[in-house]
Amino acid sequence: xxxxxxxxxxxxxxxxxxxxxxxxxxxxxxxxxxxxxxxxxxxxxxxxxxxxxxxxxxxxxxxxxxxxxxxxxxxxxxxxxxxxxxxxxxxxxxxxxxxxxxxxxxxxxxxxxxxxxxxxxxxxxxxxxxxxxxxxxxxx
Length: 140
Known about the structure:
Distance between the termini: 43 Å
Largest sheet: none
Number of domains: 2
Low-confidence stretches: none
Helix content: over 70%
Mean pLDDT: 84
Order of helices and strands: HHHHH
Radius of gyration: 20 Å
Shape: extended
Number of helices: 5
């Protein structure tokens, strides 16, 4: 939420993307840089999804979990690439409202964390879990 700024945690390093060649020659260095930056974010979630998929009794259900993860990760990037030429107005809106977006994101994270710590998250979604269990989900 930006309430406490820790300079060590706020550091960033940027690469001049104009130095990367367009086309296939620049794809590998750009992909490597992207992977280094995103590994701490994606790694734990992907590990959990892979563990859940491996522990299911049904191969197709495990594949469905991995497909859902891949779609959830990939679709936003495809939409961004598709809408990039038209994104100037939206990015401008985010720049103008960056502080509000930061505060809203922080409030949502605090609320979700509080719900998880108190066990209210599970109680909130128990009806959905029961509905899945009644209908035979996940299929075995």
